Amino acid sequence: MLSKSQARTFFLGGTVLSFLVFLGLSWHSLSKEVPKQTHEENLTPEVVRGKHLWDSNNCMGCHTIFGEGAYYAPELTKVVERRGDEYIKAVLKSPIPWSPRGRKMVAYNFSDTEVNDLLAFLKWTGGVDLNGFPPKPKYKTSINN
Amino acid sequence: MKYKSQKVAYWFFALSMLLLSLQLIYGFIMGFAHIGYDNLHDIIPFNTARAVHTNLLVVWLLSGFMGAAYYIIPEEAENELVSVKWAYIQLISLAIVGVIAIVGYHFNYWEGRKFLEIPRPLDWLVVLNVLTFLGLILATLFRGKKKTTTSLVLTMGLVFAALLYLPGMIWFDNQTMDSFFRWWVVHLWVEGVWELIMGGILAFLLIKLTGVDREVIEKWLYVIVGLTFISGILGTGHHYYFIGTPKYWLIIGGIFSAMEPLAFLGMALFAVAMYRKGEKKHPNKIALMWTLGTAILSFVGAGLLGLAHTLPQVNLWTHGTLVTAMHGHLAFWGAYGMIVLAIISYTMPNLTGRKLYDSSKGLLAFWLSNIGMIGMTTAFAAAGVAQVYLNRIMGLDFGDSQNEIQVHFIILILCATLFTIGIAMFIIEFIKYGRPNNETLNNH
Lengths: 145, 444
Hints:
The complex is a heterodimer. Helices cover 52% and strands 3% of the residues of chain A. Chain A is an all-alpha fold. The radius of gyration of chain A is 21 Å and the shape is elongated. Chain B is mostly helical. Chains A and B meet through helix 1, helix 2, strand 1 and strand 2 of A and helix 1, helix 2, helix 6, helix 7 and helix 8 of B.
């Protein structure tokens, strides 16, 4: 039967081994693959400012990006492809809460520069290789646009 | 209670209960917003309510863990806490940082990084606070007479939790990198080191409540926390499927996170086996119910419901939908909410000398809150699965699909009301116990 010291060895050994493998894989991902998959060369000052706006207004508190965030408002990873620049600009500049299907968005009333920065950020996210996420719907309904 | 300084725990538990009450209020704000009543939008928009709801959760759980540590470590180490004064300073500063953060969220002062919305300047105060806490716990432990496995596992969990907070404070320009390290905090907390904290508290409770030999309980504790790390560390991969990280995470994350329920299954089997093996029948039945409850529901909520959407083929469709909220609610409640309520239920009679073990209100609190939370989880599941089919598979517009699933949020609110009544009863009992006092020293 398993003794207490064997159990401790299992715990310590398993933890150290798992953590080392995890560190190795993380290092490989971040140094070799992520720069390519995310097109780091496209991280322009506009994109970085856009990310900062995305953070400092907690957009993730309603929306998702890369599927991460809250589930109150649409996923925005491919939003530029889906809606086009002009629609997004109108939403971001709106002086009253944008509320297409009942739910209200905070009226941010962003300036032109801020709108361009956020748009640059959203375009950059749309270009990241997400291993097939978000999946294309299997059926296209007429309502979807 | 064996040591006077254990009384500090009471105030951490009191703070914990206060924050839990507030968390429920913000939960209702979001629930009502989902059925079209977002009347508070101008003062508390959804993203504020969301950040407050999740951050209060984290802080009430942490406050509960800290209270648990202040109770358990002196008793296990057989040593008074090295400084009661500093423990109170730590408590008050924790409350102050919490209040500043929560108020800030109402004035657009935050960082939109799910669960880590606290702005970085405040992060440094959190670090100071946690260092004070760890200093007190470590000094008490190492100056004590005994270093038991239970206290070491609990302390190790607390130290690792503090260390893992740091990667979340690094600034990245790349959203993928930002997210990568955010999960080092969030995932490695809840599916890693917090399980050590939970395991440590659970072992302490089982030793006290069942009377089973410490050596047996602690041996299995090692096995369980071993399983936790072996599955949980590489299981972080299930957050790296679709965020701009390489494809091998789909395989690694899939395999290892599918093993994560084993640790929780171990925890459930362990608690039930120790209960059946135990000859001592401790009179505090309510504490025993919460203890067995947390072991079993953590397996269901964190283990099984996590498994339900952790495989990449499934997660491709459910990632970023209400399915996650389904899993999140029962996982946090079963694994961490209930363990805090278990340790509170066990310690209160010892701290105050009042033996409200068998009150009908205490039992009702247990059943109502659990039935309420299971109902809420079911409502989220229905809403989430419907959302996946309508929005993701059929391609219905997000807003239209949300309007179609609105009815589930009415059910959610009804179940949340049940849950809230249960929690209210728990808190009324907590208040009825009164303040801790020295009369109970060595009195159990």
